[in-house]
Specification:
- This protein is α+β, with helices and mostly antiparallel strands.
- 27% of the residues lie in helices and 32% in strands.
- The strands form 2 sheets. Strands 1, 2, 3, 4, 5, 6, 7, 8 and 9 form a 9-stranded antiparallel β-sheet that branches. A 7-stranded antiparallel β-sheet has the order 10-11-12-16-15-14-13, sandwiched between helices.
Length: 287
């Protein structure tokens, strides 16, 4: 009887392991056959797979990666399935890396130039064609997306009332959790003057007529208050020209700038080309 009690949990464990990781990677789809078994990288072992990009994944919350090669005729496709710590992390790395034509794969597919990427649940998936061709990417990506059963919710900052719905639906923005991702979009500092390591999350996007917009949500309003007080000396502003309660005006590295905080949210506008555009941003965007 004891053997039965030992064996039964082991069977459950083995069945459960098959549902994730390599379970997302089919053996054959639409003429593309898996070439060998999947490679597996956990935590900081990601540096063994990629040189110069692992820090970004780790900042968002990387857990593990499976990589498998597929071949069909003379074409070859490399598939990468990243497990992140939660759905916002998967969504974030998708916004940081995603480009291409929108396609209905996963929770946000982008396709073109020999690349298909999407996120679903807490997974970010990337398919790369070695020859730069798009054929075969969609059927293989769709098969992988179907095997990932979970759906993921958008980050909290995108579900509140701070941001216009049109911006959220357009999806042309970066969601970030740390300074590496934000500095890739617009350089702020080699340090962390916005204290993103405090558990903050934010989005960044380009204003249509010029300039960059950063919105950061903080879990603790006292951290935001400290950030706002230090902005004039943090290097975020090159020069502060006007200051009143809750609002700063000045110059950034490449234009005009302003900062405002409300509740737990910081709004930053940098590198705007004119005062008229800055005022239009304040009128049309700020709550």
């Amino acid at each position: 009887m004891k053997r039965l009690f030992v064996f039964f949990p082991l069977v459950i464990l083995l069945l459960g392991c098959g549902k994730g990781g390599t379970g997302f990677l089919p053996e054959e789809v639409d003429g593309f056959q898996a070439a060998g078994s999947a490679r597996h990288f956990v935590g900081e072992k990601l540096f063994d797979y990629m040189d110069g990009g692992a820090e970004l994944f780790l900042e968002y919350g990387f857990v593990q990666l499976w990589v498998r090669e597929y071949r069909g005729g003379k074409e070859a496709i490399s598939v990468e399935v990243y497990e992140m710590k939660d759905p916002p992390a998967a969504f974030g790395i998708w916004t940081a890396e995603g480009k291409g034509k929108r396609v209905p794969v996963g929770q946000g597919g982008r396709w073109g130039g020999g690349l298909l990427s999407f996120w679903k649940g807490k997974h970010y998936v990337r398919l790369l064609s070695e020859g730069g061709r798009d054929e075969g990417l969609l059927p293989l990506g769709e098969a992988i997306a179907e095997r990932i059963s979970e759906e993921g919710e958008l980050p909290h900052i995108l579900t509140g009332e701070e941001l216009p719905q049109a911006l959220i639906e357009g999806g042309d923005y970066l969601f970030f959790r740390g300074p590496i991702a934000l500095n890739n979009f617009v350089f702020i500092s080699h340090r962390d003057p916005l204290k993103l390591a405090s558990g903050a999350e934010g989005i960044a996007f380009r204003w249509p007529s010029g300039g960059k917009v950063i919105v950061v949500s903080y879990p603790d309003p006292s951290v935001l208050a400290d950030v706002f007080r230090s902005l004039p000396s943090s290097g975020t502003f090159k020069k502060v020209t006007r200051q009143k309660k809750g609002v700063l005006f000045g110059r950034s590295r490449r234009g005009l700038a302003m900062a405002r905080f409300k509740g737990k949210t910081l709004f930053l506008a940098l590198d705007f080309p004119s005062e008229d555009e800055l005022l239009r941003f304040m009128r049309d965007f700020l709550p």
